[in-house]
Protein backbone atom coordinates (compact mmCIF):
# COMPACT_ATOMS: atom_id res chain seq x y z
CA UNK A 1 0.00 0.00 0.00
CA UNK A 2 2.81 2.45 0.88
CA UNK A 3 4.54 1.89 -2.45
CA UNK A 4 1.25 2.68 -4.20
CA UNK A 5 1.18 6.18 -2.68
CA UNK A 6 4.36 7.31 -4.44
CA UNK A 7 3.48 5.61 -7.71
CA UNK A 8 0.02 7.15 -7.51
CA UNK A 9 1.61 10.60 -7.20
CA UNK A 10 3.90 9.87 -10.14
CA UNK A 11 0.94 8.72 -12.21
CA UNK A 12 -0.97 11.86 -11.28
CA UNK A 13 1.95 13.97 -12.53
CA UNK A 14 1.87 12.19 -15.88
CA UNK A 15 -1.88 12.66 -16.19
CA UNK A 16 -2.33 16.25 -15.06
CA UNK A 17 0.91 18.17 -15.52
CA UNK A 18 1.82 19.97 -18.73
CA UNK A 19 3.77 17.91 -21.29
CA UNK A 20 6.80 20.20 -20.74
CA UNK A 21 6.64 19.91 -16.95
CA UNK A 22 9.31 17.90 -15.16
CA UNK A 23 8.07 14.50 -13.97
CA UNK A 24 9.60 13.06 -10.83
CA UNK A 25 9.62 9.51 -12.21
CA UNK A 26 11.87 10.78 -15.03
CA UNK A 27 14.41 12.54 -12.82
CA UNK A 28 18.05 12.18 -13.86
CA UNK A 29 18.55 10.93 -10.34
CA UNK A 30 21.17 11.33 -7.64
CA UNK A 31 24.92 10.92 -7.68
CA UNK A 32 24.47 8.17 -5.09
CA UNK A 33 21.38 6.14 -6.01
CA UNK A 34 18.91 5.51 -3.20
CA UNK A 35 15.98 3.14 -2.79
CA UNK A 36 12.72 4.85 -3.68
CA UNK A 37 10.80 6.40 -0.82
CA UNK A 38 7.46 4.62 -0.31
CA UNK A 39 5.47 7.82 0.30
CA UNK A 40 7.26 10.71 -1.36
CA UNK A 41 8.34 11.54 -4.90
CA UNK A 42 12.00 12.35 -5.51
CA UNK A 43 11.45 16.11 -5.29
CA UNK A 44 9.25 15.94 -2.22
CA UNK A 45 12.13 14.08 -0.64
CA UNK A 46 14.63 16.76 -1.73
CA UNK A 47 12.39 19.51 -0.37
CA UNK A 48 12.29 17.81 3.02
CA UNK A 49 16.05 17.28 3.08
CA UNK A 50 16.66 20.99 2.46
CA UNK A 51 14.04 22.09 4.96
CA UNK A 52 15.72 20.21 7.80
CA UNK A 53 19.24 21.55 7.23
CA UNK A 54 21.18 23.83 9.53
CA UNK A 55 21.88 26.10 6.56
CA UNK A 56 18.16 26.67 6.05
CA UNK A 57 17.62 27.56 9.71
CA UNK A 58 20.50 30.04 9.64
CA UNK A 59 18.72 32.08 6.96
CA UNK A 60 16.50 33.61 9.64
CA UNK A 61 19.48 35.64 10.89
CA UNK A 62 20.93 36.66 7.52
CA UNK A 63 20.45 40.02 5.84
CA UNK A 64 18.01 40.56 3.00
CA UNK A 65 18.48 44.35 2.61
CA UNK A 66 18.79 45.81 6.10
CA UNK A 67 21.85 44.55 7.97
CA UNK A 68 20.92 42.91 11.28
CA UNK A 69 17.51 44.60 11.46
CA UNK A 70 16.56 45.46 15.03
CA UNK A 71 12.83 45.27 14.44
CA UNK A 72 10.72 42.24 13.72
CA UNK A 73 8.87 43.13 10.52
CA UNK A 74 11.79 43.51 8.11
CA UNK A 75 12.53 40.65 5.75
CA UNK A 76 15.41 38.30 6.37
CA UNK A 77 16.93 35.86 3.93
CA UNK A 78 14.56 33.21 5.30
CA UNK A 79 11.37 35.19 4.76
CA UNK A 80 12.65 36.13 1.30
CA UNK A 81 13.11 32.42 0.55
CA UNK A 82 9.56 31.66 1.70
CA UNK A 83 8.08 34.50 -0.39
CA UNK A 84 10.00 33.43 -3.50
CA UNK A 85 8.82 29.85 -3.04
CA UNK A 86 5.19 30.82 -2.46
CA UNK A 87 5.02 33.08 -5.53
CA UNK A 88 6.77 30.43 -7.61
CA UNK A 89 4.34 27.74 -6.55
CA UNK A 90 1.44 29.95 -7.63
CA UNK A 91 2.99 30.34 -11.07
CA UNK A 92 3.88 26.65 -11.33
CA UNK A 93 0.36 25.61 -10.39
CA UNK A 94 -1.19 27.95 -12.93
CA UNK A 95 1.08 26.60 -15.68
CA UNK A 96 0.62 22.97 -14.58
CA UNK A 97 4.31 22.62 -13.79
CA UNK A 98 5.73 20.48 -11.00
CA UNK A 99 5.13 22.30 -7.70
CA UNK A 100 7.29 19.90 -5.71
CA UNK A 101 10.36 20.53 -7.85
CA UNK A 102 9.65 24.27 -7.76
CA UNK A 103 9.38 24.20 -3.97
CA UNK A 104 12.59 22.21 -3.50
CA UNK A 105 14.59 24.63 -5.66
CA UNK A 106 13.00 27.60 -3.91
CA UNK A 107 13.95 26.40 -0.46
CA UNK A 108 17.53 25.73 -1.51
CA UNK A 109 18.30 28.63 -3.81
CA UNK A 110 19.82 31.05 -1.25
CA UNK A 111 21.41 28.66 1.26
CA UNK A 112 24.89 29.89 0.32
CA UNK A 113 24.42 33.58 1.02
CA UNK A 114 27.14 35.13 3.16
CA UNK A 115 26.36 37.21 6.25
CA UNK A 116 25.36 40.82 5.52
CA UNK A 117 23.71 40.10 2.18
CA UNK A 118 25.29 41.00 -1.15
CA UNK A 119 27.77 43.34 0.54
CA UNK A 120 29.06 40.33 2.45
CA UNK A 121 29.20 38.30 -0.77
CA UNK A 122 31.36 40.90 -2.53
CA UNK A 123 33.62 41.28 0.52
CA UNK A 124 34.06 37.52 0.85
CA UNK A 125 34.90 37.19 -2.84
CA UNK A 126 37.59 39.86 -2.41
CA UNK A 127 39.02 38.31 0.74
CA UNK A 128 39.10 34.83 -0.80
CA UNK A 129 41.01 36.04 -3.88
CA UNK A 130 43.78 37.48 -1.72
CA UNK A 131 44.74 33.95 -0.68
CA UNK A 132 43.77 32.15 -3.88
CA UNK A 133 43.83 34.47 -6.93
CA UNK A 134 42.18 31.83 -9.12
CA UNK A 135 39.20 31.39 -6.78
CA UNK A 136 35.99 33.34 -6.38
CA UNK A 137 32.85 33.34 -4.25
CA UNK A 138 29.32 33.38 -5.64
CA UNK A 139 26.38 32.66 -3.38
CA UNK A 140 24.60 30.41 -5.89
CA UNK A 141 27.69 28.23 -6.27
CA UNK A 142 28.01 28.12 -2.49
CA UNK A 143 24.36 27.09 -2.23
CA UNK A 144 25.14 24.11 -4.44
CA UNK A 145 28.30 23.36 -2.44
CA UNK A 146 26.28 23.32 0.76
CA UNK A 147 23.83 20.72 -0.51
CA UNK A 148 26.52 18.72 -2.33
CA UNK A 149 29.36 18.74 0.20
CA UNK A 150 28.96 20.67 3.43
CA UNK A 151 25.69 19.61 5.03
CA UNK A 152 25.48 16.47 7.15
CA UNK A 153 29.07 16.90 8.35
CA UNK A 154 30.53 16.69 4.88
CA UNK A 155 28.26 14.05 3.39
CA UNK A 156 25.96 16.46 1.56
CA UNK A 157 22.26 15.94 0.88
CA UNK A 158 22.61 13.86 -2.29
CA UNK A 159 19.88 15.81 -4.10
CA UNK A 160 18.55 15.09 -7.56
CA UNK A 161 20.12 16.63 -10.65
CA UNK A 162 17.12 18.87 -11.38
CA UNK A 163 17.09 20.52 -7.95
CA UNK A 164 20.85 21.05 -8.05
CA UNK A 165 20.61 22.61 -11.51
CA UNK A 166 17.84 24.98 -10.38
CA UNK A 167 19.83 26.10 -7.35
CA UNK A 168 22.96 26.77 -9.40
CA UNK A 169 21.23 28.74 -12.14
CA UNK A 170 18.69 30.74 -10.16
CA UNK A 171 20.58 34.02 -9.90
CA UNK A 172 20.47 37.01 -12.23
CA UNK A 173 22.32 39.44 -9.95
CA UNK A 174 22.09 42.92 -11.48
CA UNK A 175 21.16 41.52 -14.89
CA UNK A 176 17.77 42.23 -16.37
CA UNK A 177 15.15 39.52 -16.74
CA UNK A 178 15.88 37.07 -19.51
CA UNK A 179 19.66 37.55 -19.43
CA UNK A 180 22.18 34.86 -18.45
CA UNK A 181 22.15 31.07 -18.36
CA UNK A 182 18.74 29.54 -17.78
CA UNK A 183 18.01 26.51 -15.61
CA UNK A 184 17.40 23.29 -17.50
CA UNK A 185 13.83 22.87 -16.22
CA UNK A 186 10.89 25.22 -16.54
CA UNK A 187 10.42 24.89 -12.79
CA UNK A 188 13.93 26.27 -12.28
CA UNK A 189 13.09 29.12 -14.64
CA UNK A 190 10.03 29.90 -12.52
CA UNK A 191 12.22 30.30 -9.43
CA UNK A 192 14.66 32.46 -11.37
CA UNK A 193 12.04 34.97 -12.51
CA UNK A 194 9.98 34.90 -9.29
CA UNK A 195 13.10 35.65 -7.25
CA UNK A 196 13.02 39.09 -8.90
CA UNK A 197 9.26 39.42 -8.39
CA UNK A 198 9.64 38.73 -4.69
CA UNK A 199 12.64 40.84 -3.81
CA UNK A 200 11.74 43.94 -5.82
CA UNK A 201 8.34 44.07 -4.15
CA UNK A 202 9.23 43.13 -0.59
CA UNK A 203 12.26 45.43 -0.66
CA UNK A 204 9.98 48.31 -1.63
CA UNK A 205 7.72 47.40 1.28
CA UNK A 206 10.65 47.33 3.72
CA UNK A 207 12.13 50.57 2.37
CA UNK A 208 8.80 52.34 2.84
CA UNK A 209 8.52 50.93 6.37
CA UNK A 210 12.05 52.21 7.08
CA UNK A 211 11.17 55.71 5.86
CA UNK A 212 13.77 55.65 3.08
CA UNK A 213 11.18 56.17 0.35
CA UNK A 214 7.44 56.71 0.03
CA UNK A 215 5.04 55.04 -2.35
CA UNK A 216 4.81 58.33 -4.21
CA UNK A 217 8.57 58.26 -4.91
CA UNK A 218 8.35 55.17 -7.12
CA UNK A 219 8.75 55.80 -10.87
CA UNK A 220 5.29 56.67 -12.06
CA UNK A 221 5.77 54.98 -15.41
CA UNK A 222 6.32 51.73 -13.49
CA UNK A 223 3.37 52.32 -11.19
CA UNK A 224 1.13 52.89 -14.23
CA UNK A 225 2.03 49.45 -15.58
CA UNK A 226 2.51 47.40 -12.41
CA UNK A 227 0.17 48.97 -9.87
CA UNK A 228 0.33 51.29 -6.88
CA UNK A 229 0.33 48.71 -4.07
CA UNK A 230 2.45 45.73 -3.02
CA UNK A 231 -0.25 43.18 -3.81
CA UNK A 232 -1.20 44.86 -7.10
CA UNK A 233 2.38 44.75 -8.37
CA UNK A 234 2.85 41.09 -7.49
CA UNK A 235 -0.51 40.24 -9.08
CA UNK A 236 0.43 42.07 -12.28
CA UNK A 237 3.81 40.34 -12.50
CA UNK A 238 2.44 36.88 -11.75
CA UNK A 239 -0.40 37.24 -14.27
CA UNK A 240 2.08 38.47 -16.86
CA UNK A 241 4.34 35.45 -16.32
CA UNK A 242 1.45 33.00 -16.56
CA UNK A 243 -0.02 34.61 -19.70
CA UNK A 244 3.27 35.24 -21.50
CA UNK A 245 4.52 31.73 -20.75
CA UNK A 246 1.40 30.02 -22.15
CA UNK A 247 0.49 29.06 -25.69
CA UNK A 248 -2.63 27.69 -27.36
CA UNK A 249 -2.14 24.32 -29.06
CA UNK A 250 -4.97 22.23 -30.51
CA UNK A 251 -7.45 24.09 -28.35
CA UNK A 252 -5.43 23.39 -25.21
CA UNK A 253 -3.46 25.86 -23.13
CA UNK A 254 0.13 24.68 -22.68
CA UNK A 255 3.30 26.14 -21.26
CA UNK A 256 5.76 27.70 -23.71
CA UNK A 257 9.44 26.81 -24.13
CA UNK A 258 10.60 29.41 -21.61
CA UNK A 259 9.17 31.26 -18.61
CA UNK A 260 8.92 34.96 -19.42
CA UNK A 261 7.02 38.17 -18.73
CA UNK A 262 5.30 40.30 -21.32
CA UNK A 263 7.61 42.97 -22.73
CA UNK A 264 5.73 45.82 -21.07
CA UNK A 265 5.75 44.27 -17.59
CA UNK A 266 9.33 43.04 -17.94
CA UNK A 267 10.58 46.49 -18.90
CA UNK A 268 8.69 48.12 -16.02
CA UNK A 269 10.06 45.51 -13.59
CA UNK A 270 13.63 46.03 -14.77
CA UNK A 271 13.23 49.81 -14.53
CA UNK A 272 11.89 49.46 -11.00
CA UNK A 273 14.77 47.16 -10.03
CA UNK A 274 17.33 49.65 -11.39
CA UNK A 275 15.60 52.47 -9.51
CA UNK A 276 15.79 50.43 -6.30
CA UNK A 277 19.54 49.94 -6.70
CA UNK A 278 20.04 53.67 -6.98
CA UNK A 279 17.59 54.85 -4.34
CA UNK A 280 17.50 52.04 -1.75
CA UNK A 281 20.29 49.47 -2.03
CA UNK A 282 22.95 52.20 -2.34
CA UNK A 283 21.27 54.56 0.14
CA UNK A 284 23.74 55.74 2.82
CA UNK A 285 21.52 54.28 5.56
CA UNK A 286 21.43 50.89 3.84
CA UNK A 287 24.82 50.59 2.18
CA UNK A 288 27.04 49.18 4.92
CA UNK A 289 29.62 47.85 2.45
CA UNK A 290 32.59 49.63 4.04
CA UNK A 291 31.85 48.22 7.49
CA UNK A 292 30.89 44.82 6.11
CA UNK A 293 34.14 44.65 4.14
CA UNK A 294 36.13 45.40 7.29
CA UNK A 295 34.35 42.68 9.29
CA UNK A 296 34.46 39.99 6.61
CA UNK A 297 38.07 40.59 5.54
CA UNK A 298 39.27 40.80 9.15
CA UNK A 299 37.60 37.51 10.01
CA UNK A 300 38.94 35.82 6.88
CA UNK A 301 42.51 36.98 7.51
CA UNK A 302 42.36 36.01 11.18
CA UNK A 303 41.06 32.53 10.41
CA UNK A 304 43.78 32.00 7.82
CA UNK A 305 46.32 32.73 10.53
CA UNK A 306 44.39 30.93 13.27
CA UNK A 307 42.42 28.12 11.60
CA UNK A 308 41.91 26.35 14.92
CA UNK A 309 39.47 29.15 15.77
CA UNK A 310 36.99 27.71 13.30
CA UNK A 311 34.34 25.53 14.90
CA UNK A 312 32.71 22.20 14.35
CA UNK A 313 33.71 20.22 11.29
CA UNK A 314 35.58 23.25 9.93
CA UNK A 315 38.11 23.31 12.79
CA UNK A 316 41.70 22.63 11.76
CA UNK A 317 44.05 20.76 14.07
CA UNK A 318 47.72 21.80 14.34
CA UNK A 319 48.69 18.62 12.51
CA UNK A 320 46.25 19.28 9.69
CA UNK A 321 47.40 22.88 9.40
CA UNK A 322 50.89 21.66 8.57
CA UNK A 323 49.76 19.71 5.51
CA UNK A 324 47.06 22.00 4.11
CA UNK A 325 48.11 24.24 1.24
CA UNK A 326 47.14 27.90 1.36
CA UNK A 327 44.50 27.23 -1.29
CA UNK A 328 43.02 24.34 0.67
CA UNK A 329 42.94 26.36 3.87
CA UNK A 330 41.36 29.33 2.07
CA UNK A 331 38.66 27.01 0.76
CA UNK A 332 37.97 25.82 4.31
CA UNK A 333 37.71 29.42 5.57
CA UNK A 334 35.50 30.31 2.62
CA UNK A 335 33.13 27.55 3.68
CA UNK A 336 33.10 28.62 7.33
CA UNK A 337 32.61 32.39 6.93
CA UNK A 338 29.57 32.36 4.59
CA UNK A 339 27.88 29.95 6.97
CA UNK A 340 27.89 32.64 9.64
CA UNK A 341 24.78 34.61 10.45
CA UNK A 342 25.03 38.38 10.73
CA UNK A 343 24.86 38.07 14.48
CA UNK A 344 27.55 35.40 14.75
CA UNK A 345 29.93 37.30 12.46
CA UNK A 346 29.46 40.53 14.41
CA UNK A 347 29.97 38.79 17.75
CA UNK A 348 33.09 36.99 16.57
CA UNK A 349 34.53 40.21 15.19
CA UNK A 350 33.82 42.00 18.47
CA UNK A 351 35.42 39.22 20.51
CA UNK A 352 38.53 39.20 18.35
CA UNK A 353 39.10 42.87 17.55
CA UNK A 354 37.25 45.09 20.02
CA UNK A 355 38.37 45.65 23.63
CA UNK A 356 36.10 44.14 26.22
CA UNK A 357 34.85 45.98 29.26
CA UNK A 358 37.06 45.35 32.27
CA UNK A 359 34.93 44.20 35.17
CA UNK A 360 37.54 44.71 37.91
CA UNK A 361 38.18 42.37 40.82
Description:
A hairpin with a 2-residue loop joins strand 1 (246-249) and strand 2. This protein has a single domain, classed as Hypothetical protein af1432 (Orthogonal Bundle), CATH 1.10.3210.10. It is globular and about 80 Å long. The mean pLDDT is 93. It is mostly helical and 361 residues long. It has helices spanning 2-16, 42-51, 54-58, 77-94, 99-108, 117-131, 139-154, 161-168, 186-209, 220-226, 230-244, 263-281, 289-305, 318-323, 326-336, 342-353, and strands spanning 246-249, 252-255. Strands 1-2 form a two-stranded antiparallel ribbon. Helix 4 runs antiparallel to helix 5 (99-108) and helix 8 crosses helix 9. It contains 16 helices and 2 strands.
- Rg, rounded, reads 22 Å
Binned strand content: under 5%
Structural class: mainly alpha
Number of domains: 1
What is the third-level CATH name, the topology?
A: Hypothetical protein af1432
Record the strand order, biggest sheet: 1-2
Biggest sheet descriptor: 2 strands, antiparallel
| Helix/strand order, N-terminal first | HHHHHHHHHHHEEHHHHH
What name goes with the CATH superfamily?
A: Hypothetical protein af1432
CATH architecture group name: Orthogonal Bundle
Low-confidence stretches: none
Please write the CATH class name: Mainly Alpha
User: Mean pLDDT, as a whole number?
Assistant: 93
Shape: globular
Total of DSSP H or I helical runs spanning 4+ residues = 16
> Considering DSSP H and I runs of 4 or more, what fraction of the residues is helical?
55-70%
First CA to last CA: what distance? 70 Å
Amino acid sequence: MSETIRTMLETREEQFLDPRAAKSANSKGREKPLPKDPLRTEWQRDRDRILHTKAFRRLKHKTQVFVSPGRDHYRTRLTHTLEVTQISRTVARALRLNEDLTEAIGYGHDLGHAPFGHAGEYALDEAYREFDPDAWFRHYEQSLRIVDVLERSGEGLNLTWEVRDGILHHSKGKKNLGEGDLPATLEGQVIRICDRVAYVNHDIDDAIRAGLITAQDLPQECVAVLGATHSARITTMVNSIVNASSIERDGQREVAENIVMSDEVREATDTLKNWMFKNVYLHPKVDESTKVRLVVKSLFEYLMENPAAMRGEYAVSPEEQKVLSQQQLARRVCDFVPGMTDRFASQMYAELFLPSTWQGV
